[in-house]
Specification:
The chain has 207 residues and is α/β, with parallel strands linked by helices. It has a single domain, classed as Rossmann fold (3-Layer(aba) Sandwich), CATH 3.40.50.150. The chain is 31% helix and 22% strand. The protein has a seven-stranded mixed beta sheet, sandwiched between helices. Strands 1-2 form a two-stranded antiparallel sheet. Strand 1 and strand 2 form a beta hairpin. The protein is globular and about 40 Å long. About 8% of the residues have low confidence.
């Protein structure tokens, strides 16, 4: 992550999001997705500045956001793997994702070692966490991502009073961030309920 890149995105986009806590239904490829309206310009700029070899998504859902990510992977010649415990309900979306070279895995990611192999593999990885168990997954994968890997988690609220199912607040992941030498980057994403962190040092070499 380049600090100048981060500042460019924040200067361009900070403040364009809706008020914290208000989610408007965004659409992509005709599919309604649970994202704050206006999220795509942020991700467009992010992917212009940051390149990855493999993007892994936890929480395919209806496949709308997955379709967007799949197209970004095509542009940067990256692999894309998306996980969900349920199959995509719309076959047209599933077929479209497969045509975009997406690896769709219908499995409980909490009991799957394959995702760990992907993260530990060669190349820079972006992990997108957008399933139901965000806090335990963040805390688990914070230990596994490599130096320069990025982890982004959705439904992030800075307001500590939020306690809805599927959301999380900073205090729930603060220790994992400190213990695993992660730093928060691209804070402009927080206006769109995403927390973005990068690993900056491999602690296994400290002993």
């Amino acid at each position: 992550m380049n600090l100048k890149n981060q500042e460019m995105v924040q200067d361009l986009l900070l403040g364009q999001g809706d008020k914290m806590g208000i989610i408007n239904k965004e659409k992509y490829a005709g599919v309604t997705i649970k994202q704050v309206k206006g999220i795509f310009p942020i991700f467009d700029s992010f992917f212009t500045l940051e390149k990855f070899d493999h993007i892994v998504e936890i929480g395919t859902g209806n496949g709308g956001f997955s379709t967007y990510i799949a197209k970004q992977c095509i542009k940067m010649n990256a692999k894309f793997t998306t996980y969900d415990i349920n199959k995509i309900q719309t076959k047209d979306i599933e077929d479209y994702l497969l045509a975009l070279n997406t690896d769709i895995i219908t499995k409980d990611v909490n009991n799957d070692s394959h995702i760990e192999d992907i993260i530990k593999g060669e190349g820079r990885c972006l992990l997108l966490i957008d399933g139901a168990l965000k806090t335990p997954q963040f805390n688990k994968f914070a230990k596994l991502i490599k130096v320069k890997d990025v982890m982004m988690t959705h439904d992030y609220y800075k307001d500590e009073t939020v306690s809805e199912f599927g959301t999380f607040v900073f205090s729930e992941v603060e220790k994992a961030i400190d213990d695993n030498d992660l730093i928060i980057i691209y804070k402009c994403f927080e206006n769109y309920l995403w927390l973005c962190v990068e690993k900056v040092r491999d602690l296994s070499y400290d002993n």
